[in-house]
Amino acid sequence: MPRRPPARSASVPLPPGLIPPDLLRRHALWRRLYLDPLTKLTPPAPWAPLTDAEWEALAPHLAALGCGLAAPGRAGERMADPRGRLDAIFRAVTLKRSNTEGGGRAAWSALPAEFGRHGTVARSYRRWAHRGLWLRLLEAVAQPGAPAALRAITHRLCCAVRRGIRLMGLRAILLARRLGLFSALPAPSQYLPDPDLSAIYTPLLLRIANFRRAHPHWRAPPALRLLLQQMHRLAGGRTRIPRGWEPA
């Protein structure tokens, strides 16, 4: 008679430390994944031209990176009206499509004509994104000692960052999360790639895999399998994010 394969058993106990009992609490996963993305959204503010104080707070950052201004002794582009160009960019990134059009951000072509040619404004935005301006400003506005004039444009900066997530890549998502500026993300945080969560999840998965290799007849409990599946899904994010998922 053919020999029966050994029966699987779940009786092998888990070794101490395989799954830390305080895993969820130590990493504050519930707050990090679900609570903060809802409670730490920046309140939307209507667009308004930059005040003198706001421009004075922003100008040194533009000059440092050569974005429309050039610091003394440093190379950089010079514009006739960098303040007006920044106003135009902020106006464009805060425009929204109507609900009948699906919601979400409006196209660059929706920029009113008084702000200049939308293609020129879009090129300035992308050029400044490549130079790191938007992420620099996002970090600056999140500092505890940030000037009030800089904090006043937090919503506009968040809109500018999320508009260029594809240009700025994963580092922009990572920075916005770590700063707690979830309005700078183009969708709810749990739908976007999360390298920090992956750093929590991967060592746990490796420990379980090594234990499984040492005990080939052991099967992970359903609750553990579900936890790993959910963490894997959340760490990878979704491949397609509709525009309508953007924060206000």
Written account of the structure:
By secondary structure, this protein is mainly α. Helix content is 52%, strand content 0%. The chain has twelve helices and no strands. The longest helix has 20 residues, at 195-214. The protein is elongated and about 85 Å long.
Can you give keywords for this protein?
single chain; 248 residues; mainly alpha; 12 helices
Indicate the mean pLDDT. 87
* Helix vs. strand class: mainly alpha
Q: Low-confidence parts, pLDDT < 50 over ≥5 residues?
A: none
**Any idea what the radius of gyration is?**
24 Å
How are the SSEs placed, and which strands pair?
Blueprint: H1 23-26, H2 29-39, H3 52-65, H4 82-94, H5 118-130, H6 133-142, H7 148-151, H8 154-163, H9 165-168, H10 170-179, H11 195-214, H12 222-236
Helix pairs in contact: 4-5, 4-8, 6-8, 6-10, 11-12
Summarize the structure.
The chain is mainly alpha-helical and 248 residues long. The protein has helices at 23-26, 29-39, 52-65, 82-94, 118-130, 133-142, 148-151, 154-163, 165-168, 170-179, 195-214, 222-236. The protein has a domain at 42-186.
